[in-house]
Amino acid sequence: MPNRPPRTTRFRATLVCALGVTLLGLATAGCEDDTAASDSVRRQSATRADLATDGDGGKTLRLGEPTSITYKRGSDHMRGALRVTAVSVRKGTHAELKKAGTEPSDIRTTQPYYVTMTFENVGENSLHYPFLNTPTGLEDTNGVDDQPLITGDTEVAACPGKDPDDFAVGAKVSLCKVFLVPNGSRPSVVTYSTGDDTERPVSWKVRR
């Protein structure tokens, strides 16, 4: 008859195995808790990043100061991320508009101004026909939103503003837009709004 280990020895072996399984379970649970905690931190970080994206909405920045915004297009629900900067606002001439064939009818009562913006695609999606410059606005010293000069396919040489057809990830472009400011007023604030922030545009103060 084979020798069997004493009952005490068998009990100790069983106890060690049970403890081993328990410790393994605790270690696994600890790993799962760590993973869940990491996922939670990542989700919180992503949420903070999303909130920070439009953090300058409703604020007034200095010309040349960039800001990040969420790009949204309602027709196809396209989303992206842009870094936008109002670079300059400078006075134009009616002669430049006339040369481009876009002289306005109210030539005697308005002064053209050229607003230059830079756009950079800092998101993860390329944007097709993005119409980057469309949300750019200009407010004058009377608090009035000045009218942009719609040029269609005609380019004002001193203020080129044709949008790219495709705006790839990492791409950067500078665009200009013509505004007609009533005589007696001056540009005061450049605005830019897109997506859900049309009532809280980012603004840049125009230096006088």
CATH topology label: Immunoglobulin-like
Order of helices and strands: HEEEHEEEEEEEE
Reported for the largest beta sheet, the result is: 5 strands, antiparallel
Q: What's the level 1 CATH class? A: Mainly Beta
Low-confidence stretches: 1-53
Distance between the termini: 107 Å
Shape: globular
In CATH, the architecture is Sandwich
Query: Strand tally, please?
Result: 11
Q: What integer value in Å does the Rg equal?
A: 30 Å
**Helix share bin:** 25-40%
Total helix count? 2
What is the beta-strand fraction? 25-35%
Name the structural class: alpha+beta
Spatial ordering of strands, largest sheet: 2-3-4-9-7
List keywords for this structure.
208 residues, alpha+beta, Immunoglobulin-like, five-stranded antiparallel sheet, four-stranded mixed sheet, 11 strands, 33% strand, disordered N terminus, DUF4352 domain-containing protein, signal
List the helices and strands and how they pair.
Elements: H1 7-53, E1 60-62, E2 67-73, E3 78-91, H2 94-99, E4 110-121, E5 127-128, E6 136-140, E7 147-148, E8 166-167, E9 172-182, E10 187-192, E11 202-205
Parallel strand pairs: 1-11
Antiparallel strand pairs: 2-3, 3-4, 4-9, 5-8, 6-10, 7-9, 10-11
Keywords: Signal
Signal peptide: 1-29
Protein name: DUF4352 domain-containing protein
Structure description:
This protein is globular. The chain is α+β, with helices and mostly antiparallel strands and 208 residues long. Strands 2-3-4-9-7 form a 5-stranded antiparallel beta sheet. Strands 1-11-10-6 form a 4-stranded mixed beta sheet, with no helix packed on it. It has helices at residues 7-53, 94-99, and strands at residues 60-62, 67-73, 78-91, 110-121, 127-128, 136-140, 147-148, 166-167, 172-182, 187-192, 202-205. Helix content is 25%, strand content 33%. Residues 1-53 have low confidence and may be disordered.
